[in-house]
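Most newcomers find our protein records easier to grasp once they have seen one. To make this concrete, we reproduce a full record directly below:

…
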Amino acid sequence: MKFLEDIIRLHGNLAITIMVLTLLTELVLVLFLVIAFLALLLKKLLTFLMLLAVGVIRNMVASMTPLKKVLYSPLRMITVLKTTF
């Protein structure tokens, strides 16, 4: 801390500028971390919603046709969806 006190006493404006720039840099880094965390949460949420939608569509298609066992293949389900709708 003695070193910082000497810098502030000798070069007050420069030291304040350096401190402000350091704080701004830290704020930008924290902002990037928050954005990355929110993007990860959004990815997880979208994956969950996609899987939920696939399950709902699979159940709808399985209830419309008697070929329930065949429909559990995703490729077959897409083919049936294309021909049905």
